[in-house]
Amino acid sequence: MAEGSLLFSPAPYHILSYGTLLGTQFFHTFINSITSFKVLTRPQFAILQRAVFPAYFGIQTAAPVVLALTYFPRGGGGGGGSGSGRLAGGISGVLHPANRWGVLVPLAAAFITGLTNWVYFLPETNKVTALRRRQEVKDGKQSWEKGPHSEEMAALNARFSKLHGFSSLFNLVTFIATVAYGVHLAARIE
Known about the structure:
Elements: H1 11-39, H2 42-69, H3 90-95, H4 100-139, H5 151-189
Helix pairs in contact: 1-2, 1-5, 2-4, 4-5
């Protein structure tokens, strides 16, 4: 490989995209959200999450696509293996049967769960949150305060909890899929 040609290879962009995805997920899920929940009031926390989630879910959706597009053949990143057994890069490499479980499934799972959070759970949760705020005015009581709550607020709280629970589960699946792909990636770089 000629000096400087690595810049024209998909390999560094693949590694940087993977690092961005894993780092964003780890930081937001295990540090930012937990710390913010502890130090902010509920309304402040809700405003922060509403502002952060579109970009966060956008990264969770776009990064697996970038990873698929920049998937490089083994040895394409400067490490071992080449010759007739070398798999194609890009989408062809991702779709190759040998890569089904280590590449395609984790990247597809991360993409689908990120996209579902972005286009379904986020808007639905925001709608329920807006309805809860209106109901709080009617009830004269915050949605998170101890009961009893009006039937309307109880139903809205149940709906919010269900949406939030599924969204959290999808976020966890995205994180696990990203880590699983990382194990495959590490084995390829050796």
